Amino acid sequence: MLNFRPQEKTTLVRLSNAGVRRNGRWLVRGVDFSISRGEIVTLIGPNGSGKSTTAKTAIGVVKPDEGSVERMAGLKVGYVPQKLSVDWTLPLTVERLMTLTGALKAREIEEALAATGMLHMAKAEVQHLSGGEFQRALLARAIARKPDLLVLDEPVQGVDFSGEIALYELIKQIRNRTGCGILLISHDLHIVMAETDTVVCLNGHVCCRGTPQAVSQSPEYLKLFGRRAAGALAVYSHHHDHTHLPDGRVLHADGSIAESCFPGDGHHHHDGAENVHDHDPDCGCGHHARLHGFGPSEKRDA
Ligand SMILES: Nc1ncnc2c1ncn2[C@@H]1O[C@H](COP(=O)(O)OP(=O)(O)OP(=O)(O)O)[C@@H](O)[C@H]1O
Q1: DSSP secondary structure, 161-230, as one string
Q2: Which of 26, 146, 183, 301 is found 20 to 30 A from 250 (Cα to Cα)?
Q3: Coiled-coil stretches, from where to where (predicted)?
């Protein structure tokens, strides 16, 4: 059930040509995208491609060294980082985890835990939670202050496939109920939430972007995981034709090495005609995405 008015297209955050440089190396460069209220943007990319850096830049934890980041005035962010610095040797209940970074009213804690299906575990020790329960507890903490933008850095880490589907379902429900914008970081290059409006693939810069669309039905997949799984996940498959070396230089498919990688640098090849070029045709990056959606034929409750 959609409780917010989707026509409200308020831009929450906009990155324009944003770049972050550390120790003489560009961690990310030329990043352009925006997130509006009710929108889901997913960042994908190989390890070290700059996903977390980009997310931190979007919320203001990291300042861009070039380009700009605009945020809606008074933007409230709920952030679930990739790693938590918590002393796991100390006892910590789910309830206490909720207030580690700031006070919350009992009612706010209760509502957030209920929304993530964790109310019955309020008194449970965090150390004993399963991977899926732990991620739900972190989600509860992030939504408790009713953020305009929810930033989730790998929210399905340590969660099995069924748990992953359930978590994506929950994230979708939170978006539908509150109308917040969601910036998701996916550790998986191939699987993103089907509800994602825009997938931004990073590899030190924006390689490509696209909309995960349901274009096919896989009987094996549906048999294995059921129809609900088909509605929750889509596959976004593509490849990179260059690798970013540890020193920041770029190794291209033809073996040549360049200082940086930008559209029109002449080091990218184009795929065969069978690929669907679903990203910005002007990007010129030479990366092409093919979407194999395991799509639902039925209309979802978005
Ligand atoms: N503060 C920093 N100073 C120097 N280098 C950094 C800093 N933060 C990140 N890096 C480097 O920047 C690159 C991008 O890191 P980032 O964590 O953004 O990538 P990622 O795509 O999120 O990676 P992963 O999938 O492994 O989590 C990495 O090579 C990382 O070592």
Answers
A1: HHHHHHHHHHHHHHHHHH--EEEEE-S-SSEEETT-SEEEEESSSEEEEE-----B--HHHHHHHHHHHH
A2: 183
A3: none
Q: Band of the pLDDT at 191, cuts 50, 70, 90?
A: confident
Alpha helices in 15-160 (DSSP H): 51-59, 94-98, 106-115, 131-143
The pocket around ligand 1, CB under 6 angstroms, is made up of: 22-23, 27, 45, 47-53, 82
Domain residue spans of the chain? 11-76+147-292
Rounded Cα distance, 260 and 238, in Å: 21
CA distance 235 to 186: 12
Name the average pLDDT for the chain: 77
Q: Are 204 and 198 in contact (CB under 8 A)?
A: no
Give, using CA atoms, the residue closest to atom 4 of ligand 1.
Answer: 22
Closest C-alpha residue for ligand 1 atom 12: 27
Decide: 86 and 56 in contact? Cβ < 8 Å: no
Please tell me the predicted confidence (pLDDT) of residue 50. 92
Mutate to test the pocket of ligand 1, among 20, 25, 27 (most ligand atoms within 8 A of CB): 27
Closest-lying ligand 1 atom to the alpha carbon of residue 154:
27
* 288-297 pLDDT, tens digit each: 333 333 333 3
pLDDT in tens, 193-208: 778 888 888 888 887 7
CA of 20 to the centre of ligand 1 (A): 10
State which of 43, 52, 63 you would mutate to test the pocket of ligand 1, scoring each by most atoms of that ligand within 8 A of its C-beta. Answer: 52
Query: Which pairs count as long-range contacts for 171-175, CB under 8 Å and 24+ apart, including other chains?
Result: 171/40, 171/139, 172/232, 172/302, 173/115, 174/115, 174/139, 174/143, 174/150, 175/38, 175/40, 175/150
- What's the pLDDT at 5? 55
φ/ψ of residue 290, rounded to 5: -120, 130
